[in-house]
What we know:
Chain A is an all-alpha fold. Helices cover about 80% and strands about 0% of the residues of chain A. In chain A, about 35% of the residues are buried. By secondary structure, chain B is α/β, with parallel strands linked by helices. The interface between A and B is medium-sized, with 22 and 32 residues.
Amino acid sequence: MQRLDYILKRMVMAIFVLISVSILTFFIARVVPSNPAAAWVGPHPTKEQIEKATLELGLDKPLYVQYQRYMQDLLSGDLGTSVRTHQPILSDIKTFLPATLELVFVGMLIAVLIGIPLGVLSGAFKGSWLDHFTRLISIAGVSMPVFLLGLLLQLLFFRQLGLLPLGARVSTEVALFHPVTPITRMYLIDSAVTGNWTAFKDASIHLILPALALATYPIALAIRMTRSTMIEVLNEKYIMAARISGIRERSVLFILALKNAIVPTLNALGLAFVYSLTGAILIEIIFSWPGLGTYVTNAVLGVDFPVIVSVTLIMTVFYIAINLILDILQAFIDPRVIIG
Amino acid sequence: MNAPLLAIEDLHVHFNTYAGTVRAVNGVSFEIRSGEMFGLVGESGCGKTVTGLAIMRAIPSPGRIMKGRIFFQGEDLITKSESEMRDIRGGRIAMIFQDPTASLNPVFTAGYQISLQITQHRHVSKKEAKQLAFDMFSEVGLPHAKSIYNTYPHELSGGMQQRVMIAMALASGAELLIADEPTTALDVTIQAQILALLSQLRESEGLTILLITHDLGVVAETCDRVAVTYDGHIVESGTVDDVLYQTKHPYTQGLLAALPDTVRHKQSLEVIKGSVPDGLHSVSGCSFHPRCPKVMDICLDQPPSLIIVGEKEHSASCYLYMEETA
């Protein structure tokens, strides 16, 4: 009951934050010194064209009416139209976001599966060769520029070993002869659902290098955070009590201690996840990955405000959703947060 | 007379610190018989807890067992491998601590923790483990065993937490329970309940208990035999009646005199002047001599050995009684 209360409270707060952000992004877009109507009609517009566009876009109405219309459109799934391409933003995002999501999900999964166990072990065996080794990995992981890492990976696995493809989501052959039926537009899911295993295998192989490059920073983060909280937790009396009562060391580390140590790591990975959605631009470029990072960068360079505002809003939704999930997860991991 | 369940012979535990070697346990010997409640008494810092941890072979770094033997059911625990010890820890010897709040994992339910304990040491299914956990919770006097099972430690009172700890110790089938100050963190009425529970479990389960405490009152109420430790060794041991009422060693006498007296309402409490040696700087001769009111010349030279001083096995290490037996 208490847990349900806590979760509901978090959800209400999340909705509140969402509304605030929608207001904020709307006004920021209106305050910037560029005329949307002028951008709409293109270069060298006539006065009449601008006036017509102003009426069409409803820019002559008071701000609160404009906000109302904006919200109505938003709730009915209309994110507006790109001033650069005159394409509905929603359809653009429907193509770019799933590609990015797939990449980031897989990258984060790798980070969790590699980073957390390594963090647990280096915390448990502080000062051992393993600890020094993971320290090396994490220092390299946070300090090596991601484009360099990406290029090195390509050099090794594509050029030298010839094991993995250079880039793109699927090979041309698969795109032509075994095309993935778009459902979620995340290729792994779509190909698995439709039983298109040739495409599934091909998409998986194409994911390895970019996901690895993307995962490097979160892996380093997970190792260091998990390590430091593990060292703290392993000094607790309940860990000594568990060891003295003969619990297997594996269970002590990966169940009894890890559950106490994992929350800060999950929070950090949550932030890294949202950051990677638009921050993976360098990886997207190097691996020819048609993702959101590339899309939003082009929008910024082209002063395409409707796109920027929409992407900002979507990122906020993700950010709030991730935080909500983490809050709920935390309530299940450590029930003391509910009363705290 | 029963064969001893646990026999400790000349146990030495040293901690090699930067400041030097701390001799926390310095030649402790005692025996515990099957089914008895044995008290190990002493001031803070005299090596009681370290003795308990040594039995579990769980001395924290940088401590090491330097010398001695620990026989449990005739097997020397010192020579056991780490994996053999893991079965003994919790499985045959269990230990509970002073602070149950800190000893229970805050993010797992009481039920999860006891089940992990059970499945670790007994070959039972998850369902059987759960049933066993319910039985154990009832056994230690926790009402509504089923709801306790799904309860997190922070939702339980200190007394209930200690009952959960005791249930966990019993659930894996331990024969010897080392209870390290099990009631110190609890208030007086709960303290009495936990002690009554331990006495009752001893009767019903045939549990043998090593009670580590600084509280002579607790010893008088619950124990059969007692050993008094000072500076890492035993200064007096015997039955509770002998040690507490026919007290021989000046240190034990001092401890008894320092007990608050509710009848006579003395103005201030008696104290033993000075403090326990730190184990770092060894004291020549009897280590109690700087604080002893009956100190003699001989006490400064040689440490006295433990000798029989009275009825049966009442023994003390003090020169006051040397000529009587010599």
